[in-house]
DNA sequence: CTCACTGCAAATATTTTGCATCGGA
DNA sequence: TCCGATGCAAAATATTTGCAGTGAG
């Protein structure tokens, strides 16, 4: 929805950090914004970026992702499968988002609602731990697969 | 605390699943229970098990961990560093536990308190997602490092 | 006695790095 | 122009697999 906006924002951030805006970085960021719902791995992103920028190398994608993670533009996440995925931080709210991973169909849905405000406060008070960020994934059965299961039980 | 108890429980589970109780599996499970607070990687666990069972191979440790994960005896977890770690499920409560990962010193602390009862209910109601399990890690600064930081600021 | 299990080494998969070259600022 | 950024290939890690031999049940 606010994708072009985000694209500009991110390029600005890169610029402010004193980094060069190479065509490879542009293409990588652009693809990342376009497919931000997909939770791509480095390899997958590489394949997508290559469509627009065939000269790009996999190492550059890794290096760009590293830079983006340092600038807090993306989060590294991993869903049990040992592959690191990259998740664009939503720029609209300063808030994190959570994931719903369906164990039947493998779909990952995002929840853009901070459910942990109270919990984080409790962690701070009770354990003296200052929370800066979090990773929360629920594993279970998504609405679609639940419906499907119902149908099959008849 | 209830380690020997757990050890027996786990071996019983393996047996019930029709799996052989080889010396390698015994040694692996025993080490896992003994060091259950360490969040070991396969490689680290291998090194530890090797002390008691020098003949064991790394592949066996991987294969044993796979079996244990299938039987829900361990959870796979990963803390952003690309390495899969294995976390013994606490047998005492049926409940999950959460992690506090200190970004300064790298320590991982466990919280054995289910903070998400309300949140999971909300997820079910609002998103139609049936939660079976979750992974929750807070990233931040642990109490120890906070104290250290205070001292250095003086 | 049988077949699941194992060790070892080779194969894969994933990510990082060295280095000569290129090109954005 | 200059130094950061890139591509490529090689290296470093992490994990899986094929296979012949072994031993738990």
TrEMBL record, chains A, B:
Residues engaged in binding Fe cation: 134
Alphabetized UniProt keyword annotations: DNA-binding, Iron, Metal-binding, Repressor, Transcription, Transcription regulation, Zinc
Cofactor annotation comment: Binds 1 zinc ion per subunit.
Residues that span the membrane, as ranges: none
Protein family (similarity comment): Belongs to the Fur family.
Top-level taxon: Bacteria
Database matches in SUPFAM superfamilies: Winged helix' DNA-binding domain
GO biological process, any: negative regulation of DNA-templated transcription
GO molecular function: DNA-binding transcription factor activity; transcription cis-regulatory region binding; zinc ion binding
Coiled-coil annotated spans: none
Protein name: Transcriptional repressor
Source organism of this protein record: Liquorilactobacillus nagelii
Binding positions for Zn(2+) per the UniProt entry: 102, 105, 142, 145
Entries under InterPro entries matching the protein: FUR, Fur_C, WH-like_DNA-bd_sf, WH_DNA-bd_sf
